[in-house]
Specification:
- The chain has 3 domains: 11-73, no CATH class; 78-185, Beta Barrel (OB fold (Dihydrolipoamide Acetyltransferase, E2P)), CATH 2.40.50; 187-223, no CATH class.
- Helices cover 35% and strands 23% of the residues.
- It has helices at 11-25, 35-45, 52-73, 160-166, 189-203, 210-218, and strands at 84-98, 101-110, 122-127, 139-147, 171-182.
- β1 (84-98) and β2 form a beta hairpin.
- It is globular.
Length: 223
Amino acid sequence: MSQPTPTKLTPALAALLVLAGCVAVLPWPALADHAVPALVLAIPLALLPRGRPLAWLLLGIALGGHAVGEVRNGWLAPALEGETLVLELRVDGLPEPRAHGVSFIAQVVRPPEGYEAGFPRRLRLGWYRHPPVLQPGEVWRVSARLKRPHGMLNGAGFDYEAWLFRQGIQATGTVREGERIAAAPAWSLDGLRMAVRDRLAGLLVDEPALGLILGLTIGDRSL
């Protein structure tokens, strides 16, 4: 009885397997810790005709793991966790109102003095002590306590750390106080989105589907 002929591994299929390996790292950043073993295992498998598909997949995991490692290299230094740092940042995107404050993503404009090299550039912050009304594009000088972007998988299956990685967040933290040093630009796409959000929220106060409407119209999922 003849043996079945294995599927021919075309360049297109090999590329898809590499891409699948890279993409697999995104929802599970912990795979990045196995990038080197994946590459080592891929080498002997590549010498075996039946092992080549798995070799290409492992190569993708290794490449994706390397990319994750580069992102992690930009994480907050462990020695700075919990320290009160003074830095300047720009509000990026739409601030998200919370029951006792506001959370937002920020781009670091000026790192703390003495920590310019390797300091995180993209932060997710919460402001709970007398929070101001933030506008996209504003620049603030703040005192904040930061930590590395660790998270947990909650009961609903949401992996917070993986979400932070996909957003490019390199540190999270809490603002203790701040001073606005530059106003928002006169016009910006995020400013327009925020104006639409505020207008719809005012018109549809009792609408249970407000969050869905905002998500479909301006891509905002904060409400």
